Amino acid sequence: MEIERRISEMGLYLPEPAKVPADVILDFAWARVHGDRVYVSGHGPQAADGSVIGPFGRVGAEVTAEQTAEAARLATLAALGSVRRAIGDLDRITAWLRVDGYVLAAGL
Fold it and tell me: CB pairs under 8 A, 24+ apart, for 58-64?
C-alpha cells in the first residue's frame, strides 16, 4: 500500500471503475492478469467516481498543452486503478515491460 499512500500524499487519486452510458457495452477487461503479467487496455482521463472527463479535442487546436499533460496524468491514474483492482496491491508491481500513450494532435 506504499504506492497508494504516496499517490494520496501527492493529492492524486485512483478512480473507481470507469462509468460508461447504460447503452454502451464494453466487451473487454480494462486489465487482465495472465501468468505473472498484467495486460492493460487503453484508458482516458477519469474523475474520482470513474466518470469520463475531458478535455476533448485535438492538442494544439481545442486542447492546450497544459490540459493535455493533466489528461495524461489522469489517464495514467485510471490505468493504475484498473491494475490495482486486477492484482489487489500496486506494491506487487516489480517492473514495467512496456508503456504506450497516444495523443490526438492538430495537423501542422
Answer: 58/104, 58/105, 58/106, 59/103, 59/104, 59/105, 59/106, 60/105, 60/106, 61/106
Task: List pLDDT tens digits, range 4-39.
Answer: 999 999 999 999 999 888 898 888 999 999 999 999
Which parts of 1-108 are beta strand (E)? Answer: 31-34, 37-40
Closest among 101, 102, 85, 84 to 93, alpha carbons compared: 84
> Which domains are present in the chain?
2-92 (3.30.1330.40)
Q: Report CA 9 to chain centroid distance, whole Å.
A: 19
